[in-house]
């Protein structure tokens, strides 16, 4: 029987990669729901191609366009935040949660509360609402499968082993496009340069996060919630080739590493097929052609984002949600030309130093912290 799937954020990079894999094994999948932020035309095109039963656009002003594009089909059309949550709550075999930013928090929670299997690509869910989300997973018996290449690598390396036997988890980072740049060069970096990642094809926001190393800081926080081994057993290392996607060292000092191409279809396939495997269209890994794999310690003088993330999760309470919100505001300001590249992390640090948010006990609390932190971060932009 065909497996059912809903994809939240179908028009983004993770959504596109997921649909590419489904397209190659079309008879094995039934697409229940597809969502997008505001690109009604692309969403309708995908809904037609895959015969989606439901198409939801977050921007309510785009609903008439979506309906026009899907006229004559059996696809139901809807718009708005409530509709996104309804799409996420539909009973399917697997829900891919790939909505970028805090806009994805409520839909992720809706999918978790249904008690199904959720392939999680939304970083903000665990960064901003980690304790709330993990408590909901336990309460509703949901299964979280990590889509991020690093966390998926750790997940694979843990299979068949006990978390209690883990001595250390190492997250690898490419270092981004500015790994060898001086501080003076970083201060003059442009948005176009920041989004030109050397290894991965990603959206603008996550590419900038990779350039600042904030992406790895956010993944550090995610790893803390996904793999509860203690913060003292998590570390980050720079690996420019992006071949080793992460490593797990055990108490006997044996280290398992997951290697693969720099293509999101590999970890997505791992989630779609779990607990089995499926074919992907990538070429086999050719280590002889790669020739060498190198590793370096992070430089937190030039790239302090990982330090801020570590301090935020150590502080706990609302600090991680504040970190994430301030970073989203600062990255947006950089991409629009409002602030310099080096001001991104400065805005985040200033916001963290000025706002001590209480520990969120619910999703509404998380969104409240997020709103307060965004307002303060916007004030910080004036001094950046």
Observed structural traits:
17 helices, 2 domains, 7-stranded parallel β-sheet, alpha/beta, 384 residues, Rossmann fold, 4-stranded mixed β-sheet
What is the element layout, followed by pairings?
Blueprint: E1 3-8, H1 13-24, E2 29-36, H2 40-50, E3 54-57, H3 63-69, E4 76-79, H4 81-88, E5 94-97, H5 105-113, E6 117-120, H6 123-140, E7 143-146, H7 149-158, E8 166-173, H8 183-187, H9 191-194, H10 204-212, H11 214-226, E9 234-238, E10 244-250, E11 255-259, H12 265-273, H13 287-290, H14 305-315, H15 319-335, H16 343-354, H17 363-381
Parallel strand pairs: 1-2, 1-5, 2-3, 3-4, 5-6, 6-7, 8-9
Antiparallel strand pairs: 8-10, 10-11
Helix pairs in contact: 2-3, 4-5, 5-6, 6-11, 6-15, 10-15, 11-14, 15-16, 15-17, 16-17
* Counted beta strands: 11
Percent helix, as a range, is 40-55%
Q: How would you write the strand order of the largest sheet?
A: 4-3-2-1-5-6-7
Backbone CA Rg: 20 Å
Shape: globular
Total separate domains: 2
Q: Would you list the SSEs in sequence order as H and E?
A: EHEHEHEHEHEHEHEHHHHEEEHHHHHH
Mean pLDDT: 95
Low-confidence stretches: none
**Distance between the amino and carboxyl termini:** 56 Å
Q: By helix and strand content, what is the structural category?
A: alpha/beta
Helix count, DSSP H or I runs of 4 or more residues: 17
Strand % is: 15-25%
Biggest β-sheet description? 7 strands, parallel
């Amino acid at each position: 029987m065909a497996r059912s799937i809903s994809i939240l954020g179908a028009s983004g990079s993770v959504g596109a990669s997921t649909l590419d894999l489904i397209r190659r094994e079309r008879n094995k999948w039934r697409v229940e729901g597809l969502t997008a932020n505001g690109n009604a035309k692309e969403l309708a095109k995908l809904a037609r191609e895959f015969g989606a039963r439901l198409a939801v656009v977050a921007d309510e002003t785009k609903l008439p366009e979506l309906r026009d594009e899907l006229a004559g089909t059996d696809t139901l059309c809807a718009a708005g935040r409530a509709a996104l949550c309804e799409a996420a709550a539909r009973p399917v075999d697997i829900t891919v949660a790939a909505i970028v930013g805090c806009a994805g928090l409520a839909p992720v929670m809706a999918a978790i509360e249904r008690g199904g299997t959720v392939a999680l690509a939304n970083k903000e869910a665990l960064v901003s609402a980690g304790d709330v989300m993990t408590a909901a997973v336990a309460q509703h018996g949901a299964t979280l499968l990590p889509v991020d290449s690093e966390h998926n690598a750790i997940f694979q390396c843990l299979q068949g082993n006990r978390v209690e036997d883990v001595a250390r988890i190492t997250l690898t980072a490419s270092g981004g496009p500015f790994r060898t740049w001086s501080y003076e060069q970083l201060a003059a970096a442009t948005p176009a340069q920041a989004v030109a990642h050397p290894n991965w094809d990603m959206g603008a926001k996550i590419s900038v996060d990779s350039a600042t190393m904030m992406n790895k800081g956010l993944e550090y926080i995610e790893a803390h919630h996904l793999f509860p081994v203690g913060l003292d057993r998590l570390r980050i290392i720079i690996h420019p080739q992006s071949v080793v996607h992460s490593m797990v060292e055990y108490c006997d000092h044996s280290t398992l590493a997951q290697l693969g191409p720099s293509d999101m279809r590999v970890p997505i396939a791992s989630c779609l097929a779990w607990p089995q495997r499926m074919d992907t269209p990538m070429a086999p890994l050719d280590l002889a052609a790669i020739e060498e794999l190198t590793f370096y310690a992070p430089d937190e003088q030039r790239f302090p984002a990982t330090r801020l993330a570590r301090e935020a999760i150590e502080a706990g309470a609302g600090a991680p949600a504040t970190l994430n919100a301030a970073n989203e505001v600062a990255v947006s300001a950089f991409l629009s030309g409002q602030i310099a590249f080096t001001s991104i992390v400065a805005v985040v640090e200033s916001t963290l130093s000025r706002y001590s948010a209480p520990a969120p006990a619910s999703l509404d609390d998380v969104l409240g912290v997020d709103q307060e932190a965004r307002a303060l971060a916007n004030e910080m932009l004036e001094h950046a």
